[in-house]
């Protein structure tokens, strides 16, 4: 089993970009080895 960590440096000034970031992360992460369960993301 693969384990990954993703560190995102951000601040409240970029909070309008967070929904799109997580949408795309969920969409594309499941296509990588070790992904597949997007329920781990908030």
Task: Give a description of the structure.
With 42 residues, the protein is mainly α. Helix content is 29%, strand content 0%. It contains one helix and no strands. It has one helix spanning 18-29. The mean pLDDT is 76.
- Please give the share of residues in helix: 25-40%
Would you report the number of β strands? 0
Series of secondary-structure elements, N-terminal to C-terminal: H
Quaternary organization:
single chain
Structural class: mainly alpha
Low-confidence stretches: none
Outline, from the CA principal axes? flat
Question: How big is the Rg?
Answer: 11 Å
Classify the beta-strand content into a percent band. Answer: under 5%
Mean pLDDT: 76
Major sheet: none
Given the structure, what is the number of helices?
1
Gap between N and C termini, in Å?
22 Å
Brief overview, please?
By secondary structure, the chain is an all-alpha fold. Helix content is 29%, strand content 0%.
């Amino acid at each position: 089993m693969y384990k990954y960590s993703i560190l995102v440096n951000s601040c409240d000034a970029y909070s309008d970009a967070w929904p799109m970031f997580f949408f795309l992360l969920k969409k594309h992460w499941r296509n990588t080895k070790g992904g597949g369960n997007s329920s781990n993301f908030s």
